[in-house]
Amino acid sequence: MTEPAPTTPAMAPTDEQWAALGEARFISLATFRKTGARVPTTVWVAREGDALIVTTPADSGKVKRLRNSGRVQLSTSSRMGRVAGDAFVVEAHCEIAGPDGQHPSAVAALKAKYGFEYRFVLAIERRLERRKLAKGEPLADRIILRITRPTAAD
C-alpha cells in the first residue's frame, strides 16, 4: 500500500525515540519506490546493540525497494499498521544484513522479544513454503534487516 508522506516531518531520531522504537511491539517501516512513493509495512522489531533488527521474507517488496535505497522512515504502530496522528516519524538507514541463518544473535533477539508468537508465525510460514516446494516453486528464505540511525553521509 502506498501512502502519502506523514504530516509530521521525519527527522533524525532522539535517544528517547530510538529507545521507544526498539521497545515497541510493532513499528511502521516505510521504504521508498524509485518514484519516491512511500510504502509503509508493519513489522516486528528488536534491538541488537544500537541497531534495530527486522526479519522479512527475502522475496518481499520491501527488500526489493531497499536494494534501490536504504532510506527508511520509522514510527511506532499498532499490529494492524495504524500510526497515531501525533506519532513521531524518524529517518533511518536500513541494510539487508543477509539470511537469518547467518545472524543467530538477531534471530535470538526476535525470539526473546516475541516468544511463542514468533515461533508460531514462522511455523505457519514454513508450512506454506512447503506447499510451494510441492508445486515446484522456489522457497523464500527469511532475511535480517539492520536499521541504524542516519549518519552525516546519509
From TrEMBL:
Gene Ontology terms, MF aspect: coenzyme F420 binding; oxidoreductase activity, acting on the CH-CH group of donors
Domain of life: Bacteria
GO CC aspect terms: cytosol
Keywords, ordered alphabetically: Oxidoreductase
E.C. numbers: 1.-.-.-
Signal peptide start-end: none
Gene3D superfamilies to which the protein is assigned, alphabetical: Electron Transport, Fmn-binding Protein, Chain A (2.30.110.10)
InterPro entries: F420H2_bilvrd_red/Heme_oxyg, PPOX_F420-dep_Rv2061_put, Split_barrel_FMN-bd
Top class in the EC scheme: oxidoreductase
Name the record gives this protein: PPOX class F420-dependent oxidoreductase
Species whose genome carries this gene: Microcella daejeonensis
